[in-house]
Amino acid sequence: MERDGWISTENKESRLWRFHQRGATLEAIYSKRTTDFEFRMREFPELLDKEVERATFASNGDLVFTRLGCVYRYSRKDLRKGKPGFAADLNGLTREMTGSGK
Q1: What pLDDT score does 97 carry?
Q2: CA–CA distance, 3 with 94 (Å, rounded to integer)
Q3: How does strand 37-41 pair with strand 24-31?
Q4: Residue 43 to residues 34, 46, 47, 48: CA-CA distances in angstroms?
Q5: How far apart are the C-alpha atoms of 69 and 18, rounded to whole Å?
Q6: Domain boundaries, the chain
Q7: Contact of 19 with 26, CB cutoff 8 Å
Q8: pLDDT, position 83
């Protein structure tokens, strides 16, 4: 995570990672007890809930995250509007088996 720009602080129970991008701060709280991440943004606290599996900033500054099999992308303008610029539900996809002869 550090290679990608995240900065960490640690205590006995958890590790807090912060990623700053264009005035916004994304936080990832890693629980040592459950080995799970919880993501949040202080500027938009209602956006990321406990169902978010992964979140990061893309190289262009857009917030990209996954929740329950869906992918969302928000530009700074989209964040202010409260609507994603892109959303895709990937739950209906199936994995094609390679090398099975089918």
Answers
A1: 66
A2: 32
A3: antiparallel
A4: 26, 9, 9, 11
A5: 24
A6: 2-89
A7: yes
A8: 95
